Amino acid sequence: MKPLNLSPSFEPPARRPAPLRFYGTFGPSCRDEKTFCTLLEAGMTGMRLNLSHGDLDRCADWLAAFRAAQTCCGVTADLMIDLHGPELRIGTLPKPLALSRGGRVRLAAAPAPDAIPVPAAVLDALTPDQPLLLDDGQIELRAVTCIADSVCCRVIRGGRLESRKSLALPGISLDLPLLTESDRHNLTLARTCGVTQVMMPFVQSGGDIRKLREILAESRLEELTIFAKIENRVGLDHLDGIIRETDWLVIARGDLGSALPLWRLPAVQKAVAARCRAQNCPFMVVTQMLDSMRRHPVPTRAEVCDVYNAVCDGAAALMLTGETAAGNYPAEAMRYLVRTATAEVVTL
Ligand SMILES: Nc1ncnc2c1ncn2[C@@H]1O[C@H](COP(=O)(O)OP(=O)(O)O)[C@@H](O)[C@H]1O
Ligand SMILES: C=C(OP(=O)(O)O)C(=O)O
């Protein structure tokens, strides 16, 4: 594997940008006024809508509840849209699929019973033995036979696969457009929906951010703050150019963790943080910060340490994803996130 062109630095942050920002993610567990009020009272400063799971117009009720909660609590919060962009995901399944180790499963471009729907570009790129990582690497498949419109895979690591989960093809880089048709449609709705910030997935170069700025300007959305997600090796290789162009950088550990051997992720996170600090670029750390709180009301010791370490490394924002979107304890998770990140330094 080519060495990453990043030198780690363990210098303490020059300054802690204040105040810290905290985000939750909309989803089935986080869509009513009461929940939003609890999150805002806990210190949340903004919500992110992941457009890979639904368009802005389909979330009108959620957005109205979020606005009502801000009025009720007397605060103003950010509304961030996370574009679909060139991210690879599986399509919609009629029902979740149970995949067992050693079993076989078919990938197809068109919906078919018991097949996983994937973009046609994925089928074209697959060759026998190519690994596929699904749902941030929870599930692993290996291509066995590849024919034009269908690929048969062996299940290496099984699990329960739900609709629209992430898909990574280690070692393969597909040339996909910066924005999808649905992204362009959502941008036309952004102003009326009160969007204040936009997250761009799989940023590959400073040029991607310049292009996004042009598109935002054409849509009269130039005031939106841009958050560039670093999610793969190409993004890491072009980090300086991306930092120069973006307003914020996002260390998006879900997809980034599938693009590298997972044990290298902590060192890469530290190195990206150091580069952001050196160039005075505010950055956000995201994904699985309090993942066990999807199922439990109290986080693990390792999770609270991860949150605090991210702040010590200079993160100016932290975001919860599945913990608020689809977890059982969204309010408790936000409370732990804010309290841990803002806990006083201890001198012994
Ligand atoms: N807008 C939405 N509509 C329905 N479900 C959603 C939405 N956003 C998120 N979710 C659910 O919450 C989970 C976690 O959210 P997120 O981390 O944004 O997605 P993912 O892990 O798929 O990138 C998603 O996998 C999905 O099940
Ligand atoms: C937040 C992330 O992006 P997504 O939820 O789109 O996978 C991530 O990859 O860490």
UniProtKB/TrEMBL annotation:
Residues 24-333 form the Pyruvate kinase barrel domain. It is an enzyme of class 2 (transferase). It comes from the Bacteria. It catalyses: pyruvate + ATP = phosphoenolpyruvate + ADP + H(+). Its cofactor is K(+). GO terms for molecular function: ATP binding; kinase activity; magnesium ion binding; potassium ion binding; pyruvate kinase activity. Pathway: Carbohydrate degradation; glycolysis; pyruvate from D-glyceraldehyde 3-phosphate: step 5/5. Its EC number is 2.7.1.40. Keywords: ATP-binding, Glycolysis, Kinase, Magnesium, Metal-binding, Nucleotide-binding, Pyruvate, Transferase. NCBIfam families: pyruv_kin. Belongs to the pyruvate kinase family. This is Pyruvate kinase. It comes from Pseudoramibacter alactolyticus ATCC 23263.
